[in-house]
Amino acid sequence: MPTTNLRKLRTNLNRRKLINSGFAFLGATIIAIAIIILLGLTLKMAFQGAERITPEFFTSFPSRRASRAGILSAWVGTCLVMLVTAMAAIPLGVASGIYLEEYAKKNWLADLIEINVTNLAGVPSIIYGLLALGLFVYELRLGQSILSAGLTLALLILPVVIVTTRESIRAIPNSLREASYALGASKWQTIWDHILPYSFGSILTGVIIGLSRAIGETAPIITIGALTFIAFLPKSPFKSEFPFLSFEWLQAPFTVMPIQMFNWVSRPQAAFEINAAAAGTVLIGMTLGINAIAIFLRYQLRKDIKW
Amino acid sequence: MVINNSHEQITSIPKAEVADLDFYYGSFHALKGINMTLPEHSVTALIGPSGCGKTTFLRCFNRMHDLYPGNRYEGSIWLDKDTNILGRKVDPIEVRMRISMVFQRPNPFPKSIYENVAYGLRVRGENNRRLMDEKIEDALRVSALWDEVKDRLNESAYNLSGGQQQRLCIARALVADPEIVLFDEPTSALDPIATASIEELMSTLKDRVTILIVTHSMQQAARISDHTAFMYLGELIEFGRTKDVFNKPLNQQTEDYISGRIG
After folding, report:
1. Which chain A positions have a beta carbon within 8 Å of B124's beta carbon?
2. What is the pTM of this model?
């Protein structure tokens, strides 16, 4: 190649490499800024609340005196509401996803449902609160209870669960479905023996993402009438006599972590702000905990499954 | 297209008879008026250029097309003269329990070697461990895989090589004693050595089952099949004993394809 051409080629190449590294630098900077801000805010809250995160903080009810107030009713409420949410959203969402993906005929109705489900994921959460107030609290007379709150949040995360279920099912290579059908498996056998086990890890991820969103929701819970100050716990789900399980707690009034925080932040005394920061730190801890479990389970389940 | 009957008559008992078969993908007329017999306990090869409908034809035999919307069959495929595979009242699941299939790419389940073969029995509700062990060993022996895997039946099937995976899929297709096994270009994703071992295996399978195989390679068809059908543009052009079809083709298109002028 003549030297002039070679020089031209190299100038051109250098210019393209410069553009490439310029973009890499820009991206890294933006990510760094985002992470630093996020980390800064979280750490500031954690330091502010650190002094209040003691065992008593978890075992005390809220109180008029900031130094004696705790989050017992809030974290128990959050756990119970999340339990109801998971129990309602997982079977309903996974079953809908499977039906839409494997059974439903692919026609305009299916398309319409798909568009609507996707859009529902973007509806502001307070709208769900209003729907739940009308439906669960007044129409079905479930009251301002843990059951109502759990079902409300279940509605809220249902689209996320349905969409991730469908995506996980779609990710399974068609050759495996055909292998199963070719052996004479029925549709349900194919789903139960193959589709569900192979997509379980990814579905679980979607469920956990949904639950992490639900755990921090305040607006719909306030809308259906959660209490902001509550000094007793729901009845225990376990009892000593047969059948050892009690469902009275479902009807109990309740509060949840974000509402407790909101309540403390709105007080004038500075001491309550420290409580709010401490509760916030615990809430972030809970969310991270759920995500850690999800990552662990997904790793365990996907270890043997690859294609 | 009428089959040219001047080839020496095929004397074996027919396992299946295809009568006036038409197949449509939506409005696309993919198979046109196919008439053919599938001789029992022999290997029949379907050859022809890409897009001629060989795989489409093969997948009619186990009603695979039923899995996708918009597909339509016309005509009939009689199994043992008494069951029309394509009949409206015949359950495709029943057909697939009698006619199994091996695919182009090895597609083992992400389960253990044992469970892969066992699934052919499990779909029928079989749970008797001793009987399953026996049948699975037998299927793996027939598929020439037993000696390589007998000590690691609980390992993932994904640890096997491509050729071993394909033999595992053959074992899976054989375990429940099907009457016909369909092979859809079973060696196209394999190297020559793995291909040779599968071809060898196929000739031993004839005693147990009737084989219908789609192949891209005319050499393969010549090596392993007893009968050959040449398809072109959705029609069956010529059908007869492999040696007749290859040595004295009656049809100009067949001759052009075999001699490499089309395809």
Report:
1. 184
2. 0.83
